[in-house]
Amino acid sequence: FRSTTAGDSWTDLSAGLNITQFYRLGGSPDDASLILAGAQDNGCNLNDGSGWTHVLGADGMECAVTPGEPLVMYGMQQNGGLFRSDDGFATSFNISWPITEEGAWVTPFAIDPNNNDVLWAGYKNIWRSNDRGQSWTQKNAFSVTRNIQALALAPSQANVIYYADDLTMRLSTDNGNSWQVIGTTLPGQVITAIAVDPLNAQRLFVSLSGYADGAKVFESTD
Predict the structure, then answer these.
(1) DSSP secondary-structure letter at 47?
(2) Per-residue pLDDT for 59 more than 80?
């Protein structure tokens, strides 16, 4: 912005510049035009098909729109500040305050694909909410100091959860009550994302950070 009136009025100089850096976005399975996206230094921004509206401040991160309930949305700020809106972000409120840990810069969370009331979030440990973030339960306790970087749920099998911090990848097949280390044959790079086949909980893909040729995306079928 520029002011020629000692700050009494301002002119926007950035209109038309394509300079927003988005970290993550969430779309609606019910409305292809509805997108909620988190941006570096520019918070979370909502596009309902007619244009963008800034709905949450700070650094915007992971976002989600609830399947079948497009007015119920979630937006994340840096290091795990999670907000819920029940009215399409006309209003919102913080639901992460009961969680006693700070998350990664981009803290992962997900709506359970089998139950809209259930949320999963990865901070230093895995946390689960059965009531859309009103309360949370810690689902593991490994005394770790690393932040979780990636989290994925299996749509075809309700009890299967994958997560990774920057050193270790783990799998639970019993709704987070117990965990096993997996992915030990992967290159020693940070896992940046996990995606599970919607029809097969055993098939997943991971993306890795770093600059090594041929060591970016890996698939597992078991």
Answers:
(1) E
(2) yes
